[in-house]
Amino acid sequence: PFNEILDKVIQLLNTLRGKDLIRKWQYEQMMPDRTTCEVAHLYFNPKTHKDRIPVRPIESTIHAAATKISKFLDKILRPVFDVKCKDTTIIDGASLITELSKYNKRGLLKSTTLFCTFDIRNLYTMLPQEETLDILMTFFHAHGYRKVKGISMDTIKKLASIILKNNVFVYGKKIYKQTTGGAMGSSLTLTLTNIFMAKWQKILSKNKPRQVTFMDGKYIDDIFMTWNRSEEELRKLLDDVNTWHPNIKLDYKISNSLPFLDVQLTNNNGILSTCVYHKPSAEPYVTPFTSDHPRHVFSNIIKTSIERAIRYSSTFEAFNYERRYIKLMLLYNGEKFFTHFTYEKRFKTCKRDMHQVYHDTFKDTPAMYTKLIVGNRIRRHTYNELIRKRPNKNLLQNTTIIKKQRPWSHTGHDLEQVQQLYSLCEQSLLNYCAHRNEQQTNDVNTSSLSPINLLVVTLWYLKHYHTERYIATEFNLAQRTVGYSLSSVLDILHSCVYPEFISLPADLSNRTTPHGPEEYHKLIVDSTFIAIPQPEDSTKRKTYYHAKSPTNYALKVQMTCDFSHRIVHVSEFYRGSVHDITILRESGLLEHLNDSVQVIADKGYIGEEYVVTPRKKHHGRELDEEDKDFNRTINSARAAIENINQRLKTYAILGDVYRGDIDDHQKVTKIAQFVSALCNINLNKHPIRK
Predict the structure, then answer these.
(1) pTM of the full predicted structure?
(2) Minimum mean pLDDT among 277-281, 376-380, 529-533, 550-554: which range?
(3) How crowded is residue 380: how many other Cβ atoms within 10 Å of its Cβ?
(4) Phi, psi of 276 (to 5 degrees)
(5) In this structure, how many other beta carbons lie within 10 angstroms of the beta carbon of residue 621?
(6) Which residues are bridge partners to 217 per DSSP?
(7) How many CB atoms lie under 10 A from the CB of residue 227?
(8) What is the dihedral of CA 584, 590, 596, 597, to 10 degrees?
(9) How far is CA 354 from CA 283, 331, 339, 493, in A?
(10) CA-CA distance, 221 to 223, in Å (whole number)?
């Protein structure tokens, strides 16, 4: 599934960029690198501070396909959440003490006030995906956001959705897809969790009993609240809360003295007491002073520990106790003495005696400040299960999908058509490859493609309009090499293929060919456009403006076909604001028209002698039945060119937003003319329905 997911990510980013929904720098920041991408893998961290030591599942998504999108969205969305929810968010123990002090000053902390803490079981992995995305949209809309960093909320939802719904990981020798929740290890998951919990916290506040005032604050999935009514009512409320959502279940504790984060909070008959809290499983270890860390690291450890003790301790007694703890912790992290009975089998039955001897020998000496460790070897099964995190590389490495399938299967043409094209330009491609190889003789690391593969990759590029960066990573090529090769091969294909398949018959007036409503109706003409991004220059915005383009700016080209649905003429490209009749007059097509050869066109071409267009109604008058029948006949005949224009746009380079130089009209013209030749090649096997 890795290639499938990576292609989805790249295709989404290309589509968003093509429609100008994300900016170039945003596109580059989110685009994954195929050469370094890997499937995520699962490992576990034990929660040693909890009963029966459960484990926390963590996905290593450092090289996953959607990691860059996750980091980017987290970078732009989290600051908004931090600002809008700062009043109900607990940052650390100090901020909780500050809020409780305000609560106390308002006279709400009474001798009967209870403290309650609860956390959500496995919240990260139990988040309902669709509901979370809807809550994300609701949150930003409620705060007046329609865009964040220039990106619309609909686009943000699409990007967040591809992160949540395409989360695949390796565990053991199998690959799994996560269907509920987000990856614990993905940057965006934390922000989505915070926003989900903010909504849940609001619902809790709305459902509290009337005339009940309490303080609540949230630190991710841990919530602290005060309660001024009976414990039974609080338990009933929390038990009801457990039934609100099938995925959200909470574990709670109620008392007048509870820890939250790293602070112990106690209600002593209406007086708030606080001190530093250390989890029972916490080991008093910090960076050893004998390590090679910079000196400021050690001073900062002492400074931070003392400052926390001062801020958290409500009494001198509590501060003095914490000061002694800090001193012992620092002494603990001096010289260490290790004895391991694995290497001395005779000590195996003497562990307790060794500790007693050590204590009796070094009592009241500096040696007591060192640490004696006596233990056994790590259990190999547990090591493999929890600590050995990275699976075999064969499960994580990418296998290019193009190598497994027929190379022409993604070009829109079958093998016979590809061989036909190759036969037309074989010698030119061979000459180009020979010249390229001469230039690359000094670079032993340069990868290159064979002539037939150059043709196939170019057809693939025209059909799907992948970025040069994507093609480079797909085929292990340098990006500059891809750009140069595509440009050179397009020139070769245009010169060899276009004249063979696109031309106006010299004896068109004398030939018996399919025609329109009248025998002299030989051709149909119409213009089509390629959407382009909004130009930065205001003058260019005026000249490239085109109302029908999804971006409001475009390049225009004129197509001419016969009644066999074969394209016979393609004009040069013009700026979007140029009128259709102007393109016709400058295209040279009028020189081939006469009484026996006339073209059918829409009302944009009114004004030329041999151009048949629908009749316009005069001001204040309706068309009579004869005029209406004539218009229906002309419009029905014009359906052929409309179908051809739609087929041209199945090639993404013409159907998507053009990313090249909009002023290089010669290059765009060559692309459109060659794609028109490809459409003519396809007519035999895939005719347009008449």
Answers:
(1) 0.55
(2) 376-380
(3) 9
(4) -70, 140
(5) 7
(6) 224
(7) 22
(8) -40
(9) 22, 22, 10, 84
(10) 6
